[in-house]
Inverse folding.
């Protein structure tokens, strides 16, 4: 199938941080959630894809093109939304648009106006005076007004209240209905991704933990709970991460069915959320 | 080419929005008053006006994290760098136009004893000095960024102002006004060699800045 993005063995070294041999692919028309704790390497990866920082090793292809050799061609087809708006705050929405639009060959003024109206953005309002949520909407309006095929979003919902986040996710849900647009969405608010993501890529400490279809991730992992007396017989080895309390434990496992067969009602098995998966995997074993 | 024009427009729009151009206009007018007796200081004031506007743009880019924005647009790094240099020439031309207009009006009306206006040699000296100033400044700015390059301003400023001050010091004391003496000093061969030298330095500086900026990474947090 047609790939929007191929990241192959990409490495980047900073003092005190290494992104090591990360590889994953994203097909056109799908939404990929990029999750991981703060400092995991999500923003580094996004900036490598945008060629804002240079990779130390590996290759990155966007639409089958090397992202360094074909940077401008690729950027014509990419829309970006960052966690903090990288536009001049003292300019109005309309003025800022007039600075950005000429750089895109396929800028569509009618589409931009339609999105301004749909998002409730006032063209005469200064960017500094827009709320954080409205600033994100403005970035999204810009991203959608030059017929971008691939939208890269770096923590677009961070700092937004739940109502605004929900609204933004509804907008993204509408955008992906045509199955033409591809979205890479980095966040540490994993509940957002449960609503819209097709694939989940989990990065921790600069390493790729997994890249899988979201439904497969949610089917594969489960949270099991039980009494402390069950521990010590090798059960812990079958957990990905565990929290040990005074009277019992809660753990993440990818072996829930077998555990159910062996331990029956001594264990309580619950569906794991993406947040559970991320938290248990990052923290490993700890006492509470 | 059209992208360079849009980038120049970007800088001018920022100045217009912040009304920082007003101060540059005032400095341009002040240089007209200084011109008859202290032509090198008039030239230095023109550079100060251009510097003022250029550094304002750098400050806006820094304040609003704009580098992340335009580096994400389909604009090459070399286009961006070249646009900064071309904008300096555009602003220098604009400030000189203001100064020339003011000195013309003052001369016609006799205000502030302004009896001489800009001559071609002095206009060329201004443009050449501005080119040398920013040829020193921009590579340091692109290498170090806004915050760390502020000291580079002072070094570039001291260098260019020192050269202009030295030039003023060497003017022979005669009955003629300094502006006339200096214009005579800068007759054809000196002027042509100076301008060609300025162009070479400017061109080398652009090449160096493009090289620096092509390697430069956007500062990020993970």
């Amino acid at each position: 199938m047609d790939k929007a993005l191929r990241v192959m063995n990409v490495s980047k070294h900073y003092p005190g941080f290494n992104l090591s041999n990360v590889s994953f692919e994203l097909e056109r028309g799908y939404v990929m959630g990029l999750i991981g704790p703060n400092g995991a390497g999500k923003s580094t990866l996004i900036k490598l894809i945008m060629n804002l920082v240079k990779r130390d090793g590996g290759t990155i292809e966007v639409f089958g093109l090397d992202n360094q050799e074909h940077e401008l061609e690729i950027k014509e087809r990419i829309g970006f939304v960052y966690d903090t708006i990288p536009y001049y705050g003292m300019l109005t929405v309309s003025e800022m648009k007039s600075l950005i639009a000429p750089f895109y060959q396929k800028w569509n003024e009618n589409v931009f106006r339609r999105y301004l109206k749909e998002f409730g953005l006032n063209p005469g309002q200064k960017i500094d005076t827009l709320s954080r949520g409205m600033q994100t909407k403005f970035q999204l309006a810009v991203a959608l007004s030059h017929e971008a095929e691939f939208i890269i979003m770096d923590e677009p919902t961070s700092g937004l209240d739940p109502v605004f986040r929900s609204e933004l996710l509804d907008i993204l849900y509408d955008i992906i209905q045509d199955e033409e647009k591809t979205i890479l969405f980095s966040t540490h608010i994993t509940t957002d991704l449960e609503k819209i993501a097709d694939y989940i890529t989990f990065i921790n400490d600069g390493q790729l933990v997994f890249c899988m279809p979201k439904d497969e991730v949610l089917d594969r992992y489960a949270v099991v709970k039980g009494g402390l007396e069950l521990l010590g017989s090798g059960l812990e080895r079958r957990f990905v991460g565990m929290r040990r309390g005074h009277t019992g434990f809660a753990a993440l496992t990818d072996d829930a069915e077998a555990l159910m067969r062996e331990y029956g009602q001594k264990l309580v098995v619950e569906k794991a959320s993406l947040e559970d998966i991320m938290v248990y995997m990052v923290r490993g074993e700890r006492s509470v | 080419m059209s992208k360079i024009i849009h980038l120049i427009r970007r800088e001018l729009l920022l100045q217009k929005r912040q009304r920082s151009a007003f101060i540059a206009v005032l400095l341009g007018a002040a240089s007209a008053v200084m011109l008859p007796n202290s032509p090198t200081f008039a030239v230095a004031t023109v550079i100060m006006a251009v510097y003022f506007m250029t550094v304002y743009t750098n400050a806006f880019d820094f304040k609003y994290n704009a580098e992340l924005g335009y580096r994400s647009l389909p604009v090459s790094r070399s286009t961006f760098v070249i646009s900064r240099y071309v904008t300096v020439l555009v602003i220098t031309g604009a400030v000189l136009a203001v100064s020339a207009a003011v000195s013309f009006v003052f001369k016609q009306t006799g205000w502030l004893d302004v009896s001489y206006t800009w001559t071609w040699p002095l206009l060329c000296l201004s443009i050449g000095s501005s080119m040398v100033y920013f040829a020193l400044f921009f590579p340091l700015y692109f290498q170090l960024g806004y915050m760390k390059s502020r000291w580079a301003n002072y070094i570039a400023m001291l260098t260019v102002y020192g050269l202009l001050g030295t030039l003023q010091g060497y003017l022979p004391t005669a009955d003629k006004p300094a502006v006339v003496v200096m214009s005579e000093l800068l007759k054809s061969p000196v002027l042509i060699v100076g301008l060609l030298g300025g162009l070479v330095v400017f061109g080398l500086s652009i090449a160096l800045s493009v090289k620096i900026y092509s390697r430069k990474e956007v500062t990020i947090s993970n």
User: Anything to note?
Assistant: The mean pLDDT of chain A is 90. The two ends of chain A are 46 Å apart (CA to CA). The longest strand of chain A covers residues 3-14.
